[in-house]
Amino acid sequence: MKGGRILDAVNLAGILLLVAGFVLVAVEMVMPGFSAPGVSGIVCLVLGVFALADSVMEGAVITIGVLAVLGILAAIILGLLSRGKLKPPIILEEEQNRAGGYLSSSDLKYLLGRQGIAATDLRPSGVGTFDDIHFDVISVGNYISKGTSIKIIKVEGSKLVVKEKGGKENG
């Protein structure tokens, strides 16, 4: 009867490998990316089939069963994802607003009209310092040397357009 216990242990190991494989493949379906769970799941499924099958025919039948279960699992997960009942962890749920400390490029409009200093040479782009904060800027004129007083005359998204303080605006 010792042989029966060994076979039971092999069958149990095969079943556990199949279950682990299904779980790992399901994790990969919900959280795509690194592929470690998916590859590990496939390895577990293959080892589970080998552990359970006594012949090639049995292996083929078990493989067909595994593929059927994977198809059903994929359909269930896709259904849950499409209905919003299962949310993948790669989607940001929180709103990023000013109250939470987030700033968007449209928030730079408050700088319009501010005066500062060219921290680098502007040829025509460079860095300007306004209220001790460095910003990437673009000058409307030609070259503006480092240390020159500048003024923000236009804000286009994240682009700050400056002119030399006291200089003419060229568009």
Question: What this model shows, in words?
Answer:
- This protein has about 170 residues and is an alpha+beta fold.
- The chain has two domains: about 1-85; about 105-165, OB fold (Dihydrolipoamide Acetyltransferase, E2P).
- Helices cover about 45% and strands about 20% of the residues.
- The protein is built from three helices and five strands; from the N terminus they run H-H-H-E-E-E-E-E.
- A five-stranded mixed beta barrel has the order 1-2-3-5-4.
- Strand 1 (about 115-120) and strand 2 form a beta hairpin.
- Helix 1 packs antiparallel against helix 2 (about 35-50) and helix 1 (about 1-30) runs parallel beside helix 3.
- The model has no long low-confidence stretch (mean pLDDT about 85).
* Biggest sheet record: 5 strands, mixed, barrel
Task: Compute the number of helices.
Answer: 3
Radius of gyration: 32 Å
Mean pLDDT score? 83
Instruction: Determine the N-to-C terminus distance.
Output: 94 Å
List the quaternary state of the chains: single chain
Q: Report the principal-axis shape.
A: rod-shaped
Q: How many strand segments?
A: 5
Question: Based on helices, strands and strand pairing, what is the structural class?
Answer: alpha+beta
Helix content: 40-55%
Strand portion? 15-25%
Low-confidence segments, ≥5 residues, pLDDT <50?
none
Secondary-structure element order, as H and E?
HHHEEEEE
- Strand order across the largest sheet: 1-2-3-5-4
- Tell me the count of domains: 2
